[in-house]
Design brief:
By secondary structure, this protein is of the alpha/beta class. It has one domain: Rossmann fold. It has seven helices and nine strands; from the N terminus they run βββαβαβααβαβαββα. A hairpin with a 2-residue loop joins strand 8 and strand 9. The longest helix has 18 residues.
């Protein structure tokens, strides 16, 4: 079941007063861990309030530590324990040790379909901390950007509201610019803003492939 744009719900992201259509592809390029955790707590708190199924792929700490952190920030995750799935990022993105984008794209699609069609949730949202990809041998920049491009396409059909978290202290400038080129909206100082660097999936892949050939 694909969801047409006109049939999408308008939702709250929690950290901003603005309401948006579900299925946003958000990048969060951050330098402040305290701010990031507060933003994510509000993101998931609003998901609980809107009866959404949620997924958090954690890299900076263990899933149990992140769950405890969200609780300390006021998210009542124990009230609906089935609504939030907390997993280790590296083992989810790289179940066989190497990142295969299609596996995580299939996971996102199936997560949405199961949540809405089988479990009765109103929608789905999720976030992934992306620093796992910096470990040598797991992936490279080209594969990562192709994944982000195809995730942008997938969310147009299966509207998981997705937030990709990139630590600006760990990623180089070229990667950050590529990330910005593939996310229509971004979070700046805890607010959602339209991303002026977004160029769209088709243009990005065309230019990226041309630069690789050149």
């Amino acid at each position: 079941m694909c969801v047409k744009s006109k049939d999408r719900r308008t939702i709250s992201l929690g950290f901003t007063d603005e309401r948006v259509l579900e299925g946003q592809h958000i990048c969060y390029i951050y330098k402040d861990d305290s701010e990031r955790l507060r933003v994510m707590a509000k993101f998931f708190e609003s998901g609980l309030q809107m009866n959404e199924k949620m997924l958090y792929l954690v890299d900076a700490m263990t899933p149990d530590e992140m769950l405890e952190c969200l609780e300390e920030l006021g998210v009542d995750v124990r009230s609906k324990p089935a609504a939030l799935t907390m997993k280790e990022a590296a083992s989810t993105y790289c179940p066989h040790g190497v990142f295969t984008p299609q596996e995580i794209l299939d996971l996102a699609r199936d997560f949405y379909l199961q949540a809405v069609n089988e479990e009765g949730y109103a929608g789905a949202r999720g976030t992934g901390e992306m620093s796992w990809c910096l470990v040598e041998g797991r992936t490279d920049r080209r594969v990562l950007m192709e994944y982000e491009a195809h995730l942008d396409i997938l969310l147009a059909e299966y509207p998981v509201t997705a937030c990709c978290q990139y630590d600006a202290r760990r990623f180089d400038g070229n990667t950050i610019m590529d990330v910005l080129a593939l996310h229509p909206v971004t979070i700046i100082h805890g607010q959602l803003v339209k991303n002026p660097y977004y160029i769209g999936t088709e243009r990005f892949l065309r230019e990226y492939n041309a630069s690789e050939i050149g």
